Amino acid sequence: MLRIDVISGFLGAGKTTFIKRLLDTNLKDEKVVLIENEYGEVSVDSDMLNDSGIEIKELSQGCICCSLVGDFAKSLNEVIEKYNPDRIIVEPSGVGKLSDVIKAIEDSGLADLLNTYVCIVDSLKAKVYAKNFKEFFADQIANAKTVILSRTDI
Fold first, then answer.
1. What's the distance, CA 21 to chain centroid?
2. DSSP string, 40-105
3. Which residue in 72, 81, 115, 138 is a FRET match for 34, CA 20 to 30 A apart?
């Protein structure tokens, strides 16, 4: 059965590294599509994941939870029809609310496919993010089923 996972976290927290690790281990036998919400002209994350053999759908004209809600629903349905994946991983922009991304998936009529929502938190920058991005940072942590601390070895 198709499952949708959301991997959130602020910029540079380690979302893409975590996804790559999942693809190389736990999800290596699944057909996975990544929907990535990127800002900017160049997608470093896609370049890093290209050798993983998964399909990558980029949304780069805005935020899933704000201006792209309709496009996001359309993209989810296109991915399901075109690729028939076992799993869709959604990697939202690092500066959005996880609650809004979850709501966008639910509003797409796909709530029953939601599997988990993970928030990756850079342990070295957590205090700075909590201070400068209060509401957004708190929302990502509060709405995640699992919070993973990165860079704990430093």
1. 14
2. SS--HHHHHHGGGT-EEEEE-SS-TTTTTHHHHHHHHHHHHHHH--SEEEEE--TTS-HHHHHHHH
3. 138
Where residue 71 falls (left for φ over 0; alpha for ψ -120 to 50; beta otherwise) is alpha
CA distance 143 to 148: 13
Rounded Cα distance between 133 and 11, Å, is 12
* Matching residue, tokens 């949304």: 59
Q: Does the structure show a pLDDT above 60 at 140?
A: yes
* Alpha carbons 69 and 37: distance in angstroms, whole number: 12
130: which 2 tokens? 């909590």
pLDDT interval class at 86 (50, 70, 90): very high
Spell out the residues 6+ positions from residue 62 whose beta carbon is closer than 8 angstroms to its own.
68, 71
- The model's confidence at residue 59, banded by pLDDT at 50, 70 and 90, is low
Which residues have C-beta within 8 Å of that of residue 148, sequence separation ≥ 6? 18, 118, 119, 120, 121
